[in-house]
Amino acid sequence: MYNSKITGLGHYVPEKVVTNDDLSKLMDTSDEWIQERTGIQERRHVEKEGGDTTTSMGVEAAKIAIERAGIDKDDIDFIVFATLSPDYYFPGPGVLVQRDLGIKTVGALDVRNQCSGFVYALSVADQYIKSGMYKNVLVIGSEVHSKGLDMTTRGRGVSVIFGDGAGAAILSREEDTTKGILSTHLHSEGQHAEELALLAPGMGGRWVNDIVSDNDPDDTSYMPVMNGQFVFKNAVVRFSEVILEGLGTNDLQASDIDLLVPHQANLRISQFVQKKFGLSNDQVYNNIMRYGNTTAASIPIALTEAWEEGKVNKGDLVVLAAFGSGFTWGSVIIRW
Ligand code: UT7
After folding, report:
1. Tens digit of pLDDT for each residue in 163-194?
2. What are the helix (H) ranges across the chain?
3. 253 burial level (CB within 10 Å; 0-12, 13-18, 19+)
């Protein structure tokens, strides 16, 4: 048996900064409302025409992670790509990364677990490495939200929250099983699938061309919807549960945590979790102020920035946790 460890991290965000004031020109919202309810000050959006895509941003993040891991692209044995906003409905972006990075014909898997996508993707990669099947796995989380949001007052409860970006990690074999990823914990509760969802193009029977041919301006099935308060209440409970589960599995206490990197859903959720576990501001990494909620990309972007800022050091206990659409949630316990 082996462990897996993160040997390289990278992130990429599009250049265009969109402030809360920019959004208030498009819909009935305000900088005050957004900051008070979510902590978000600005987010990045890709250009409407041309420019970055979910895959291209993932590729850029991956290049940095590969270089920092000190490996060659041909040392990568497998690709796992988490996103809810693929370039194409199919095929998923995993194969596009294999093509665009010019990696040999290794397997490429796409993960569809929204805000928990990166945690699920890491867990999959971890198992392949633990079993001895692969040595180096490229794990990517990337999202283009801005092209799919309802930028009118009708969509303001969702569209002010989400931003675009990508993060990537190289997970490599670690022979010392007291180091690296100690455990991962995954959950789902499909009973609440429609509380945070984008229903098109499946629609339980309808398909893309039916929806397009309807051409109905009131058809919001291709826009994300969210029952915000319900999601919030579930998030704070599940974040706490799954962190405790991870600590318990490893005989650890909250006081052992050196750094918690929560999925960046809402600064208020992160602060609730911070308080519950008695952590200081230095022990919880947040960057939602600058990027909004980038779904599957949020943890790898935050972890990369935390690492770049010297907040992740050898021997540290690092905890990742996420909750989101599905509902799905999970945690990863890492001894760095
Ligand atoms: O990452 C995946 C998981 N996602 C989450 O964890 C998100 C969890 N939920 C949340 O973060 C919060 O519920 C939101 C930030 C989405 C919303 O905050 P809230 O405090 O729950 O607000 P609300 O939905 O209860 O809406 C309060 C009021 C409503 O007006 P009335 O009915 O009181 O007159 C909304 O229409 O705020 C209104 N509102 C807005 N006003 C200005 C909703 N969105 C906006 C907006 N600007 N963008």
Report:
1. 999 999 999 999 999 999 999 999 999 999 99
2. 20-24, 31-38, 54-69, 93-100, 117-130, 156-159, 208-214, 228-249, 267-276, 288-291, 298-308
3. exposed
Residue type, 105: T
**Whether 209 is catalytic:** no
Spatial separation of the C-alpha atoms in residues 196 and 185, rounded to whole Å: 21
Closest Cα to atom 25, ligand 1: which residue? 229
Other CB atoms within 10 Å distance of the CB of residue 215: 7
* DSSP secondary structure letter of residue 137: E
187 is catalytic: no
Q: Looking at domain 181-335, what is its CATH homologous superfamily?
A: Thiolase/Chalcone synthase (3.40.47.10)
Q: Is 3.40.47.10 the CATH classification of the domain at 3-176?
A: yes
CATH 3.40.47.10 residue window(s) in the chain: 3-176, 181-335
CA distance 193 to 90: 21
